[in-house]
Amino acid sequence: MQNKLSKNSKILLILSSIILFISIFVPLWRIELDAPQYPEGLVMKIFSYKLGGQVEIINGLNHYIGMQTLHAENFIEFTLLPYIISFFAILALVTAFWGNKKMLYFTFGLFLTFGIIAMADFWRWEYNYGHNLDPSAAIIVPGMAYQPPLIGFKQLLNFGAYSIPDIGGWFFIIAGLFMLISVLLEAGYLSKFFKKKTTVKTTLAIFYFILLLSCNNGEIDPIKLNKDKCDYCNMTISDGRFGAELITKKGRVYKFDDLRCLINYKAENASVENIKYFVHDYTGSNQLIDAASAHYVKHNELRSPMGGNFAGFQKVEDAKNYALKHGLQVLTWEEILNKK
User: Fold this and answer.
1) How confident is the model at residue 145 (pLDDT cuts 50, 70, 90)?
2) DSSP state of 4
3) Distance CA 175, CA 171 (A)
4) Any idea what DSSP says for residue 313?
5) Which of 95, 202, 230, 270 has its CA 20 to 30 A from that of 306?
C-alpha cells in the first residue's frame, strides 16, 4: 500500500498526459529573425510533424549565404516525434491509473532523458544548418557561421535571431514540472512546503501563469520613460505626454517618443500589419490611450520631442478646452495621419 501513488500525483500525471497530447498539434519551438528590412520579423515555427511560419522566405534568404533549405521531409524527427510524444502521454496515463512509485520514477527519468536527447539533437541540427555552407554561395563571409542559438538571442550579420519555446514547448516544460512535483511528493520532499490539499491548486496556478507568458495577446506595453528608445529616431523616450505605440498583427510592440515618429514609421513600413495604435494622454503622465478614439490638437507651442507638436486627449472636453484657449481646432485620428 505504501508504494501506491497519492491522489494528487495521479491528477498531476493525468494533466501531464493531456497537455502532452495537445503539444503534438501546436508549435513546439519558434525561431524569430529581426532585421531592418523586415520590421515585423520573420518566424519559423517547429511543430512535432512539420515546419510552419515563413519558411519559404527564410529559405530564399538562406540561399544567398549558402545555408541549406528547410523541408520537413528531410528530417526523420518529424516522422518519429508525434509517436514519441504520444508514447509519453500514454505512459503518464498508465502510471496514473495502474502505476506505483517505482513506475513514476521510471516515467519521469525516461521523460527527462528524452528531453535532454531532444535538445542535444536540436543543437546538432542547428550546428549543421549553420556551418555546412555552400562554397559557391553569392555571399561568403570568411570564418562566418550562421548557427542559431539553442535558446535566447544571437546576432547573425544584420539579423537578430531569437530561439524560444512556443506554446507546445511550454506544455512540454509544464508536463515535466508536473511529473517532477509528483516525484517530490511521493518521495516526501514537499511535505514541509505544501499541504497535500493545496498541491494541485498550486501547480495549476503555475500552469496558468506559464500559459499566459507563452501567449501574446497584443496588450499595451507601457513606455518606460528614460529607458525605452524610439523605434524610429532612436532617441530615449523621456516625456510622458507625447509618446506613442503601435502593436502589429503578430503582437510586436514599437514605441515612439513623438506621434510624428509613429506616422513616419507607418508611412515607411507600409507592409507592417498594424492592429492597434496608442498615444500618450497629454493630461495624464505616461498614460497610453487608444489612438483611434483620441482627440487631438496641433500647436507649435507644444514643442514635442521631434517637432510633431501633437497633443492627444482621451476626453473630448479636454481637447476642446485646449483648442478654444489657443484658437485651434480639434482633430481626429484620420486627420492626424494626413498631417506631418
Assistant:
1) confident
2) B
3) 6
4) E
5) 270
Which residues are within 8 A (CB) of 164 and not within 5 positions of it... i.e. 6 or more apart?
29, 30, 32, 151, 152
What sign results for the dihedral spanned by CA atoms 72, 74, 79, 81?
Answer: negative
Contact criterion met (CB below 8 Å) for 164 and 29:
yes
* pLDDT tens per residue, range 72-97: 888 999 999 999 999 999 999 999 99
The one-letter amino acid at 322: Y
In angstroms, the CA 23 to CA 115 distance is 14
Q: pTM higher than 0.85, yes or no?
A: no
269 HSE (CA, 13 A, CB side): 21
Q: What is the dihedral of CA 75, 44, 174, 205, to 10 degrees?
A: -160
Q: CA–CA separation, 29 vs 44, rounded Å?
A: 8
Question: Closest Cα partner for 11 from 214, 211, 197?
Answer: 197
Query: In this structure, how many other beta carbons lie within 10 angstroms of the beta carbon of residue 137?
Result: 14
What sign results for the dihedral spanned by CA atoms 133, 32, 27, 275?
A: negative
According to DSSP H, which parts of the chain are helical?
Answer: 7-23, 55-65, 77-98, 101-131, 167-187, 196-214, 259-268, 316-326, 333-337
Instruction: Report CA 33 to chain centroid distance, whole Å.
Output: 12
* Residue of higher predicted confidence among 316 and 140: 316
Question: To which residue does cell 496588450 refer?
Answer: 219
Q: What are phi and psi of 112, to 5 degrees?
A: -65, -40
Sign of the C-alpha dihedral, residues 4, 10, 13, 18?
Answer: positive
CA 161, CA 44: separation in Å to the nearest integer?
11
DSSP annotation of 306: T
Q: 117: exposed, middle or buried (C-beta count within 10 Å: 0-12, 13-18, 19+)?
A: exposed
Model confidence pLDDT, tens digit, residues 103-123: 999 999 999 999 999 999 999
Cα(182)–Cα(16) distance, integer angstroms: 11
